[in-house]
Structures are given as C-alpha cells and as structure tokens.
Amino acid sequence: MESPASEARWILESVSGLVFDALLIEEAPATIRAERKVNALLERRLTGEPLQYVLGEWSFRDLDLLVDPRVLIPRPETEILVEIALLEAALLGMRIGSADPWADSGRDHVVVDLGTGSGAIAIALERSLPDAQVWATDVSSDALAVARANIAGTGATRVMVGEGAWFDALPLQLKGNLMLVVSNPPYIAEHEESDLSTEVIDWEPYGALISGPTGLEAIEEILMASVEWLAPGGVIVIEHAPHQAEAVVTLAEATGLKDARVHPDLTGRPRVLVARNPH
Ligand SMILES: C[S@@+](CC[C@H](N)C(=O)[O-])C[C@H]1O[C@@H](n2cnc3c(N)ncnc32)[C@H](O)[C@@H]1O
C-alpha cells in the first residue's frame, strides 16, 4: 500500500458520507454500524484488494462509476484518451457540450467505445457529444452488467450496449457508418505479466489486461477491421503502451488508415494513436 493514511481517509469518507475535515470536527461518536463497516472495508483492503473495488466506486472525469472485479479500474491516462477523442470529434464537425435536457438530442453521428469495461469512455463521450449515439461493446457479459448499471446510474440515455468481440458486437448496418471509434483495449504482453503489481494481476480481469504473446494482438485486430467499419473520413483513437508507439503507427498504416500519429499523455509519453479512414 503506497499511501495508507490517505486510503484510510477515503474509507472513512465513503462510510460517513463526510469529507475528512468535517469528520475531524464532528462531535457525535461513530455508530456501531459505521465502525463495523469501516472495519470490514479495512479488512478487505488489507487482503490486497484494490481500494477502488473496496469502495465499490471510482471517479472518471466528472463521473462516479461503480467498479468491482468484473471490470478494469478506469485509469487517469484514459481520461486523456477521451480528451483526444473529443478534439477529433470537434475536428469532424461534431457539436461538443452538454445536451439540452429540454430539446430532442440528435443521433447524427455514431460513436463507438470498443471494450467498454465499466462504461467509462462511452458514458464520458455521451456526456460531451450531444448529437451522438454511442455504442459501448465488450466481449465480457460480466463487464457489460457493470457498464449497464453505470449507464443507468448516470442517465446516459444515448448509450447502446453490444456484446461480442470488437466490431462483431455491433449491428451490421453500422458497417461503414462509424464517425469515431475509441478503444482502450488490453495491450500488455504475456511476458510482461510479472511486471504488474499483485494488486493488478490478482484482482483486475485478466482479459482486460493481457492481449497475448506480443501485447499488440487486440490493437492489430481492431485496426484491421476498422477500415471497413469507419465512415469515409472517420477516425479511430486507441490507447496503447508508450513502447508500442512506433508499432501501432506501422500497423495503422499497413491496414490502409491514413494520418496515423501518436499523442503524448500528461507526462509526455506517447499513449494514444489517432488514424483516419481515407476512403
Ligand atoms: C483495458 S480494459 C478497458 C476498459 C474500459 N474501456 C476502460 O478504459 O476503463 C479492456 C476491455 O476490453 C475488453 N475486451 C477484451 N478482449 C475483447 C474482445 N476480443 N472484444 C471486445 N472486448 C474485449 C475487456 O473485457 C475489457 O473490458
């Protein structure tokens, strides 16, 4: 555990519903129920379960999402993926902003989040693209159960869910009509498994982390199919590991996509591939 004091604060805040400063000046003693709950959560954390699963929720951009071991814990670098996807959406002419609750929201553009996990990317995109219909897909029915709960809980009424392997989860009539495809696929190689902390490899879904022998299998599969699923001029935005930057650009160019380039994260490491369907 890297910061036990702040993790203990998170747990106290979660159980009490108070921010820590307010807790310090709170005069009333804790109830027995609250004390039991705190102890139960601390015990789970002490077994090595990630704090996010212990709390049962985690934030992603302005969203509070349910998370449990059926889904990957949304990461801060994926917030950058969403930012870059929104910049691309604006360049594609999509309106950015929140939907007017009194007006009919448009469904002018189809946007897809492949491998949605908790639904983080799909819901974040729906929030910021008032004229888009967003598809959230995953091969894991367990993950989709969590995504569905988050879609309902956040009121993301323009998010549709599809189960299946990458683009196979989508209705065939969407083929050739997708304006924006966004994905944070598994991109860790089998031989890199030992570099992961036990908290990650023992608790997060294996299929959300590990792609195969090279780590590039999922990205390659998505890129290969994207040319026929993207609309002419449509854009794909994919998160990858920093050391995969050159390889993902080469893969994108080999599939016939154009303008392939990678964007850095906040620490300057190349993390996000963007490429365009020229046809
Ligand atoms: C790295 S996680 C990303 C989860 C979420 N999008 C996020 O960013 O927090 C990858 C997701 O891809 C899903 N996945 C793995 N293989 C897949 C496949 N062949 N087809 C569709 N989804 C797949 C996993 O179940 C997992 O939810």
List the SSEs and their pairings:
Layout: H1 4-16, H2 20-25, H3 32-46, H4 51-55, E1 57-60, E2 63-66, H5 76-91, E3 109-114, H6 120-128, E4 132-138, H7 141-154, E5 159-163, E6 178-183, E7 188-189, H8 198-201, H9 206-209, E8 210-212, H10 217-229, E9 230-239, H11 245-254, E10 258-264, E11 270-276
Parallel strand pairs: 3-4, 3-6, 4-5, 6-9, 7-8
Antiparallel strand pairs: 1-2, 9-11, 10-11
Helix pairs in contact: 1-3, 5-6
Residues 72, 74, 78, 115-118, 120-121, 138-140, 143, 165-166, 184-186, 207-208, 218 line the site of S-adenosylmethionine (SAM).
CATH top-level class of the largest domain:
Alpha Beta
Report on the biggest sheet. Answer: 7 strands, mixed
What percent of residues are in strands?
15-25%
Helical content stands at: 25-40%
Bound ligands, named by name, code or SMILES: S-adenosylmethionine
**SSE string, helices as H and strands as E:** HHHHEEHEHEHEEEHHEHEHEE
Q: Based on CA inertia axes, which overall geometry fits?
A: globular
Count of helix runs: 11
Number of strands: 11
- From the helix content, strand content and strand pairing, which structural class follows? alpha/beta
Question: Might you state the CATH topology name of the largest domain?
Answer: Rossmann fold
CATH superfamily of the largest domain, please? Vaccinia Virus protein VP39
Amino-to-carboxy terminus distance: 50 Å
Radius of gyration: 20 Å
Poorly predicted parts: none
Number of domains: 2
CATH-defined architecture of the largest domain? 3-Layer(aba) Sandwich
What value does the average pLDDT take?
A: 94
Strand order of the largest sheet: 5-4-3-6-9-11-10
